[in-house]
Amino acid sequence: MKNSHIAFIGAGNMANSLIRGLLAKDVPASHLHASDIDPQKLAELENECGIHTGTTAEVAAGADVIVLAVKPQVMATVCENLRAHIQKPSCLIVSIAAGIPLASLENWLGNERAMVRCMPNTPALVGEGATGLFANTRCAAADIALAGDILSAVGITCWLKTEQDIDTVTALSGSGPAYFFLMIEALEKAAIALGLDADVARRLSIQTALGAGKLAADSDVAPDELRRRVTSPGGTTEQALLSFQRDGFERIVANAVEAAQRRSAELAK
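The chain above was modelled as a monomer; its predicted structure follows.
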């Protein structure tokens, strides 16, 4: 990865996070390039990170990897403009745009190209992202390794068995941060309603979510066992969990994920 020239088409939050994550992994700034319609974003990257910025044609020329990080609604126009400027036949295309299937990218950029479609999530902004990836049949082992290395600069990566799995990943980890934000918000409001200071309620709600996630990530046992270990018979946690179950908590979550997955599939069409 450190020997590859990586061009970012689009310099929004996710591209910005990836660039900074790659720099933290000792990828040379001289090997990172970005283009964007917003000159302010490019100026900030150039000044703060020391990378090369320019037009789409300039940054794509000679790139070993092109990361497509523009909004889905402009992807077709961007790709059709980009196609003539990709010089290396072996250039790997990595898309982090939601809802754009590989078939569309192949149509716009040429079906002879190695391509990887990714679904990252917003915790990548703090280096704690979760990304699902799927490669087309043109990808060699080296392409797959390279794409994985790039995305793992901002969190964990998981390779998927089918492209349709992207819709489930979108519903799980892509949209998932909002589910946890809603839970934090609900806990905060409940504690305030019971008389707790608002600032204390917020800090404790956020830290509890952070601590639970880290405990689950660092543990060698499954979440259900961690839940059992903190649930004493007849105790306070048991009462809360019983209330969740009476109100159909697991079904509520399942319905939400299924709704998000259906919408992701609809958008891809």
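The two ends are 33 Å apart (CA to CA).
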